[in-house]
Structure formats: structure tokens, C-alpha cells
Amino acid sequence: xxxxxxxxxxxxxxxxxxxxxxxxxxxxxxxxxxxxxxxxxxxxxxxxxxxxxxxxxxxxxxxxxxxxxxxxxxxxx
Length: 77
Description:
The protein is an all-alpha fold.
């Protein structure tokens, strides 16, 4: 939206009744909430499955699990 268009909208808002302004505020708040809750990218696991080749970080997943569990156990002792 250009700054001229924004100024025009703001002038129109100045002429609105309080009820109309409150209705507009509620509408804008709802729009902002919706855009915030909608992630930019939504993938289902089925869509991204297999995109990362194993071993992703040079280590087998099961080996990584065993190693991190062992490290956690050692840390707790």
C-alpha cells in the first residue's frame, strides 16, 4: 500500500463513528491473528520424508541415540 493510499484510508477512518472504528479494529486484529497463526511453510511429514539422506550428520540415527543417552547418563552421575 502506498503512503497516499494509507493517508486516504486514515482520513476515512477519522470520519467513522466510534462503533465503526471499533468494528474495524476488531477486523484488523482478527486478520493479524490469522496471519500470525498461519505458518509460512506447512509440510506434512509424508511430503518431506526422504529428503534428507542418511547419515545426515555423518552418524547413523541409532548410533546417535545410543551415544546421546550414554552421555546423558554420564552427566547425571
